[in-house]
Each structure stands twice: as C-alpha cells, then as structure tokens.
Amino acid sequence: MDLGLKGRKAVVCAASQGLGKASAMALAREGVELFIAARRREVLEATADEIAKLTGSRPNTIAADVTTNEGRDALLSACPAPDILINNAGGPPPGDFRKLERDDWIKALDGNMLAPIALIKATLDGMIERRFGRIVNVTSHAVKAPVAMLALSNGARTGLTGFIAGLCRSVAEHNVTINNLLPGTFDTDRLKSNLAALAKNTSRDAAEVTEEIRMANPTKRFGQPHEFGAACAFLCSAQAGYITGQNILIDGGAYPGTF
Q: Which residues are the signal sequence here (predicted)?
C-alpha cells in the first residue's frame, strides 16, 4: 500500500534506537523527509547512515535533548513545519515509588508528558493551516494496564494520554490526527533493562525472568521493532485520517480486557 506520504516532513524524537528508530525507518521507506533527534550524536549518526543505506536518502540529524527548551528549539529550527510528529522518549527508570523523590517525578513528567505537549503546541497550528497533520505519541501498555514497578511511567504517560483525549477532537476537522501507540514487550534495550531490574528485585536469574515473560505473551514471543514501525507509519498515512484520539495497544494480545 502506498501510504501517500512521499515528500512529507517528519520529526521523530528518540530516533537513534528502539521503537523510535523503527518508526523512522518505516517512514523513510515511504519517501518521508526525516528529521531525527536523539541525545547521543554518535548513535544518531549511525542510525542516519543505516537509513540512508536502506532508502538512499539520509535523514537530517539533530543531536539534542528535547526535554529541554534548548533541545526543542534546535529541533524546530531544523524543521519548523513538520507534517508528522512522532513524540517518543526513553522511559523513566523502574523502581519502588517509596524510594522516588520529587526530582524523579519532575524528570519523568518532563520527558514523557511536558516535552511532547510542548512539541505539539509548537507544530499543531501549522498542521491545521496546511490541512494535514499526523501526531503519534509513543506511550506504553502501562497506560492501559499499569505495572507497579513502572510508577513514573504510569503517572507521566497517563497524564499525556488525558491531555491528548481533550485536544484531539478539536483539530480533527482540519485533517490533523493525534493518536497514541502503546507498545507491550518489544525486543529493545528498554525491555532488557526492565527485565534485569525485575530479576534483581525478585532475586531471580535474568534469563529465567525473560523466558517467563516471553512465554506469558499469547504469541510466545516479544514484538519486533519493525512491526511497531509499520503500525506507526500507517497512523501517519493519508489513509488514516479517520483515526484519531485512539490508544492503540501493540502487545501481542497480552492485555486481557474487552475494552
């Protein structure tokens, strides 16, 4: 399927690895002009080289921390009028909420709620004027089924979800959609670190915990990042203009509820 995105401009945050990288690659295959951001320059440039090898077109790279005003300014200076915005950030660390301090919560909110809102604020009106906009927020399955050890993520990402629910319907008539993708257990470095933390907290072997979590999924496997990237690209497509305000689980069927 031609997603109708050739020549569109996309900003992808935290795009140097994991699900952000997969989303950038999927968009690159559709002929999107990419502006990819991440904090670590060397990893970001390696990802850009990989995408260039895959598609023949090298993304624009912005080494910046988008949780800061300076980082967002750098990103938006490079691409002030994106057609597509992929909000993504590394999740806050797991842990017992009793051991968390105010600064931990503020950092989580900055990364997983306030920075996405700031980028939406900076780009939304331009999308409305051009009558095309696709915003996808990469959140977490923990929004739908909170995980005790992910207290910071549960709180910050759910806050973003509530904000989006209040905003998305007010812009839908302008062909601007805003959706959230909720990944479950994907084979990424983030998953590995969470499983290692779980193993440590329960005094168990990491390999044992990993296999237990893998086999608990109805698919008996972890998701592959390219599967996530493909779903993200479709939500950005011309054909997805009637999908907005949705929290779409991509978790192999792990969530057992009807709704």
A: none
